[in-house]
Amino acid sequence: MDFAPDVQTAGLREEVERFFAERILPAEHIFEEQIAAGDDPWATPPIMEELKAQAREAGLWNLFLPDENGAGLTNLQYAPLCEIMGRSPFLAPEVFNCSAPDTGNMELLSQFGTAEQKERWLAPLLDGRTRSAFSMTEPHVASSDATNIATRIRRDGDEYAIDGIKWFTSGAMSPRCELLIVMGVTDPEADRHRQQSMILVPVDTPGVDVRRSMHVLGYLDGPHGGHAEVVYEDARVPASYILGGEGEGFAIAQARLGPGRIHHAMRAIGVAERALAMMVERVQGRSTFGSPLVDKGVIRQWIADARMEIEQARLLVLKTAWLMDTVGKKGARIEISAIKVVTAELASRVVDHAVQAFGAAGVTQDFILAELTAHARILRIVDGPDEVHRETVARREVAASRDAATTYAVAPR
Amino acid sequence: MDFAPDVQTAGLREEVERFFAERILPAEHIFEEQIAAGDDPWATPPIMEELKAQAREAGLWNLFLPDENGAGLTNLQYAPLCEIMGRSPFLAPEVFNCSAPDTGNMELLSQFGTAEQKERWLAPLLDGRTRSAFSMTEPHVASSDATNIATRIRRDGDEYAIDGIKWFTSGAMSPRCELLIVMGVTDPEADRHRQQSMILVPVDTPGVDVRRSMHVLGYLDGPHGGHAEVVYEDARVPASYILGGEGEGFAIAQARLGPGRIHHAMRAIGVAERALAMMVERVQGRSTFGSPLVDKGVIRQWIADARMEIEQARLLVLKTAWLMDTVGKKGARIEISAIKVVTAELASRVVDHAVQAFGAAGVTQDFILAELTAHARILRIVDGPDEVHRETVARREVAASRDAATTYAVAPR
Amino acid sequence: MDFAPDVQTAGLREEVERFFAERILPAEHIFEEQIAAGDDPWATPPIMEELKAQAREAGLWNLFLPDENGAGLTNLQYAPLCEIMGRSPFLAPEVFNCSAPDTGNMELLSQFGTAEQKERWLAPLLDGRTRSAFSMTEPHVASSDATNIATRIRRDGDEYAIDGIKWFTSGAMSPRCELLIVMGVTDPEADRHRQQSMILVPVDTPGVDVRRSMHVLGYLDGPHGGHAEVVYEDARVPASYILGGEGEGFAIAQARLGPGRIHHAMRAIGVAERALAMMVERVQGRSTFGSPLVDKGVIRQWIADARMEIEQARLLVLKTAWLMDTVGKKGARIEISAIKVVTAELASRVVDHAVQAFGAAGVTQDFILAELTAHARILRIVDGPDEVHRETVARREVAASRDAATTYAVAPR
Amino acid sequence: MDFAPDVQTAGLREEVERFFAERILPAEHIFEEQIAAGDDPWATPPIMEELKAQAREAGLWNLFLPDENGAGLTNLQYAPLCEIMGRSPFLAPEVFNCSAPDTGNMELLSQFGTAEQKERWLAPLLDGRTRSAFSMTEPHVASSDATNIATRIRRDGDEYAIDGIKWFTSGAMSPRCELLIVMGVTDPEADRHRQQSMILVPVDTPGVDVRRSMHVLGYLDGPHGGHAEVVYEDARVPASYILGGEGEGFAIAQARLGPGRIHHAMRAIGVAERALAMMVERVQGRSTFGSPLVDKGVIRQWIADARMEIEQARLLVLKTAWLMDTVGKKGARIEISAIKVVTAELASRVVDHAVQAFGAAGVTQDFILAELTAHARILRIVDGPDEVHRETVARREVAASRDAATTYAVAPR
Question: Could you report the predicted ipTM of this complex, rounded to two decimals?
Fold first, then answer.
């Protein structure tokens, strides 16, 4: 057991840290001003493209992708880099071409795509020229249970016809979005986990209606293409657009969620670090009733708790990354659920305390804490609400108890 | 001791409840649609004026005001009515001309205003024809400690000249806002609690710059006039515009905060009831993994906890109202601090659980829960952050311990 | 609505408060010393009988009993008196002949007993000459679900024969205990809530084996007769010893639990007040790292939270008492469950903070806080674990939602 | 970074695990029965000596001691072994001669003792033939601030004379205890951290009065020698009994606390694992209201939370051990404070849930959970209350903020 990072990771971490401090952090205000000045909330501000170019030139590009199409890092190596990006979650991930849902979509295309699919859809995503969306969640069912999904994908000759309504199709409002990866039922009679398939749907396909943007606690998440409600009404694509084959939807979704969740978890640690750092800075410059805020015991408790919880959560994220690298996504399934819950709640808690320490300023547009509040809140819901993941952890624990060699014989005497 | 409401209160509660169910609740969507359709985010939608007219006609008007200018109810009588309004906090309070900051401002004018001040400013507010703002919080100091306030109000001949910067001057973005009540320092050499004064400043006074709207977690709170940053630069008003006399600012602020806080507390109970009701309705219509959400133990725990906490908090609010009625604001000071903390945290907690039970829908513009999240969050900061009020409660407790007749002799043997 | 106590209650409260401060509090150490000096842990120390005589002489006797056999107080009137007793829970309740399980047993005998049963069993209990035990909980089933109870009570000619094993039969270790009220199944074929009966069993009945004392987190609860494991093996009593009739067991248990729970709740408030008072006293006399503990922000937060939570919980207990007085035990059923949960958790929380503020001293025999820790902990389990009562509250809330006139139409748009 | 244990650790873990399952767990009841059957609560039951002999023979002896006197393991290697011992904290640690306070005392003697001191005191402790006590905490001051300590150690010719009163001198009630290591003030005029010294005091020194046993929430902790109050009244020892030199007391105390705290932390993880395992076993065998407890959502949440929190806490403990091994105790100071807090609170929380899941059985002498409740509770106080350690973490965080290269410029715009 060894808690020191390997040399390559240490070096990359230093590079990303420097890029973050020198380029990204100072650009946050420019990013916001360009958004405010523009009249299309879905447009990508120019500063983003400048930073992307710089990051690519610096070799900090597609860091998330473990195969030859990307940086070739393990999850354990990527984790500290992803965490740094999380400190500026509305700007940094895309700068390094590491932003959801493109990351997950690129992984799917890289892993399950045909040569044709890769050429048409993966290449421009890897270049950061286009964006994509993942169209899974539905408004009319509890989508955390994937078997509830109702969208139909019917084979009709050489085509598939798609009918259904999705929302929280993140990224689809962006003018740069070209591809929707849609999950739906191809065979309602099949086994529970063989009913669904995934299919690639160009956003300009007739019958696809990107109807409206869903707000997240008042925010549009505009430059990233928002979170769209998309209606599919007899939307038809060639049969070759199926991803990985009919009935593979559930398995592909699982494959996608593992990395997706750990990336969220890594970034959530970054969010918590950002909020903590801002809180500690702020309370040193304000006083009430005769003493600086930093000397108030309750605020010091928030600070200490944040530090202790962050350290613990980070280690579990790193261990989970290591498990994914060594025993695979499936072997790390329980830990992935655990870090999903732990980091989402952590980020919410620390951001909440930071807002409180800022007072009224904390909820305004002047500081990133307000938008982080919304961002951290939604983390407790996306990729399955925390309660579903807790259940996963509990189920394993009960099963493990049944198989345990050592028992404590807890019947009454 | 008797927990049954008096006959008048019971009757009014029924009336307000009916008005709420029949008129206000169905108007919520209209209200939102009119806002969405308009191009001035600060305009008051027409439905508001219609509902106000109906409420006034029904005799449900200025219910908050205990004196002859209003409905003449005690705090204890007003409490359950105010709570109902809290169930639709962006619409209902104004319908009954019971919305902050006008309520507090009307109280101040009613209590401390000269005949002239009343005629010019109070009358139209009582009629619901104009709106007003309270300009106290400053961005550059921790304003929860009123002695930090830096805005200067200098006497200069027959005028006062005001210089300073305020924010969270709620209501000031509204085109209907005509009056700013400003708190500032008239005598920096005076005793700590005699330095400040309050002064009435017409919003169109030269030197008054309503500079920008402060967002609250992404929301504008537009129809209520938002929360403005206001810069005062040699803004001059006649000396007669002072409220209650020089050096009275701190005392008047205290007088204002008591009712203000209890109204917030009453409405916060309503917010919690609304969120709980929505949660309980919602979870009966959704299923995951083979059983309806309403059967999940964790959700049932949220429901039970919400109910138990609401009942307790409501009783403390009612008792505090009764104390204000019987021993006065000062005598109820500690309880006012207590309910401020208790109800703000309660509302945040219940709304948070409701959002979680709704899943992604909970954070969208489709349900009021998203905006309630922001609303409940800010309640933990407005009128002094919870931590300041906890300190008030603790201080009294320690003092009471010193005076206690019965002691427990806790030195070691 | 009125939060002032009536004159009689105010007077009694003053009397009990004075008796508490002058007689009981100074006797706590004597009580402990007499226990320590004695060699029978189950014996009642002499000081108890002295205090009982004084209380009876002062007319402060059987205050809990609402009918002509007792003080004739309503629940609302008794509540503040019972709370004071809770501040010294190992001494005070018995002093006023108001200690469980005798209180509940006296209520049952008074309400359901035959004249003969009353004369033999109730009269000496009312006099404080004997003690009694309630034998319901069983070690081999989850007894919070009364239908799990397995003890058999078989009719055999003019007798009932009892077979089963009980534990937590509180009071049965006392040499003064003469009566066991036993719950068991008379008819396993009857409707679910008509299977059980209650029966009066003299403790010296052959076949009754008071086998051992169950410890409560290391404490014996000796002077009150501990918490016995009792084995019934063909224990036979005359048929006339049945209480209220065959099949009435469940209904009588329900009747007993209402007052039992509210008494626990009232006393738990007293426990919390005691712990808070001790904590506030203690932290004024100790310093670390240059400042007194009372100035540490975290401790002040504990103090403030304790005060705010106590005030709320007390009001809900009082309201519940008022409901029991006005709409009956059944009408107050949900509130009884609520206060059971709320006060047990409150007492645990405040005692825990007090212990922490005392440091190592808090866990020693030198202060009552150690035994209060055990006492408060068990309150979260006795009379049904909190989780069962939360479920009761949730069930009603869901039912109420189905019947609600006002709905919020929470289906997606 | 690598989360896999090294080969030696993996092997040892397997051995200790097997020894635990085969020898220790089945001996717990024997241990309790021998205590119950004996009439000296301070006597060590025979089973302990049998197990010690077996452990020593198996080579599982003095595992905690990193130098040539012990097993020579690093902290990181010892951690998983110590955790297993924590699963039976009243029996296992002593079996492997790894129980506090002897471990810390052996470390001190090994590190700071003279050859003479080692021969007389260390050798028999290493052999498990004697026991020792650490006499630091005082009843009359808040001892978490070591500068409060008032016991005087005066040089008088060739002797030191000791005067003072200590309590929680763990182990001193044992007839096998031969040595007290006492901390006191040698020079009240010296610098704050140079005033204290440590001195070796044979327990039979005239003037040493082991006056009484301090209970811990009702428990005696008898077989380990309890927690004594010890009065020193002109107790005189040769000057050569000083440990490490005058004025070294504070530094030695710090040196002792590091490993002491991490051992507590490791064992606390074991306590939590034990409680979790018992809870999961128990809830599979009980039902209420128609379904097994294991299917209740709230209990499953307890299980999931326990697992997630244990995993995180363990990783932080392991990382702290690694830091102690690589950068030293001082470099790991903040992390040592963090794990002290984290694991103590974790153990309390999990044990509390387990007790609740057990119902009344959980508080009885029939299950270890009752005594674990007391054990876990006191962990939040020993070695400095959690609040003091939180302050240590907060202080570092604030200092780190001042030195940070990257700042977030949190002044208002």
Answer: 0.96
